[in-house]
Design a protein that fits this description.
Blueprint lengths: L12 H19 L1 H21 L4 E2 L3 E2 L1 H30 L2 H6 L5 H27 L15 H22 L3 H18 L11 H6 L4 H14 L4 H25 L7
Antiparallel strand pairs: 1-2
Helix pairs in contact: 1-5, 2-3, 2-5, 3-5, 3-6, 3-7, 3-9, 5-6, 6-9, 6-10, 9-10
């Protein structure tokens, strides 16, 4: 007597599921007006406000202030979107038992998370294009150096780091209010301590030193150097390496505290 073995999913099942999930995640993001506003318009308000307040002022040896505030606000906006999106999604999936359904299907969880990562990278690149286009307007006067393509790996590593943080937040929180509270407690102080809203060179020395334990400092530092035309391979590798280290650390924490359902 022979026993039947479960059929393995077709070779194209995972790629098909990945494409479907990526498309669904993208559509869910663009259809939610609140998400679109807080992803693109809200951070852009900070760029405009700070750009107006410090228009024409220079810091750090004559570098225009806009060369600090544009990459700083961009870093914060990218990090904010990459953290909040996965955190809210993971909380809702667990609360509504969607994760349990995923667990029972042939689609592995890494495929689900991979689709969200691709969408998060796309959102981050779109934010970068929008922010840079506004900052390049003559009224603000951002000077873009020819080394700007070096910002692309920084954005990818930055998205990965903050997405892994979002997985931690989403694993800890059981309600939308808890997600918002935890995420804001993380992102708002980090924005000021990392130099995203205020040049890090003007912060007290001990704060500048302590800020290197924050992932936003690496993303902000790298983008600032790239847009100012002073990035080197060594500094870029350090910033990307720091972001990769945060990705690993928070990824391991998220894997340790991950729950398939609130009932378990």
């Amino acid at each position: 007597m022979t026993t039947a073995t479960p059929a393995k999913p077709a070779a194209s099942a995972v790629p098909s599921a990945y494409a479907t999930l990526t498309r669904a995640t993208f559509l869910a993001s663009v259809r939610d007006r609140t998400t679109v506003f807080f992803t693109f318009a809200f951070p852009l308000v900070f760029l405009v406000v700070f750009g107006l307040l410090f228009r024409g002022q220079n810091v750090d040896g004559g570098l225009p202030y806009i060369n600090y505030v544009a990459p700083g606000v961009l870093s914060w906006g990218v990090g904010n979107a990459a953290l909040f999106g996965p955190a809210f999604a993971l909380m809702h999936w667990r609360r509504d038992d969607i994760l349990r359904l995923i667990w029972r299907t042939p689609t592995p969880l890494p495929t689900v998370l991979g689709s969200r990562f691709v969408v998060a990278v796309g959102v981050g690149l779109s934010q970068a294009v929008l922010f840079t286009a506004v900052a390049l307007l003559p009224f603000f006067g951002l000077h873009l150096d020819g080394s700007w393509p070096l910002a692309l790996p920084l954005l990818v590593f930055g998205v990965a780091a903050f997405l892994s943080m979002g997985l931690v937040v989403g694993s800890l929180a059981d309600t939308p209010e808890a997600v918002a509270a935890i995420a804001n407690c993380v992102m708002v102080p980090m924005a000021f301590l990392s130099g995203a809203f205020y040049p890090a060179d003007l912060l007290p020395g001990w704060i500048r030193t302590a800020s290197w334990v924050l992932p936003l400092r690496y993303l902000d530092d790298g983008l600032t150097d790239v847009l100012a035309g002073r990035a080197s391979f060594g500094s870029l590798a350090l910033d990307c390496g720091g972001l990769a280290a945060f990705t690993v650390v928070f990824g391991l924490i998220a894997a340790r505290i991950f729950r398939w359902s609130n009932r378990t």
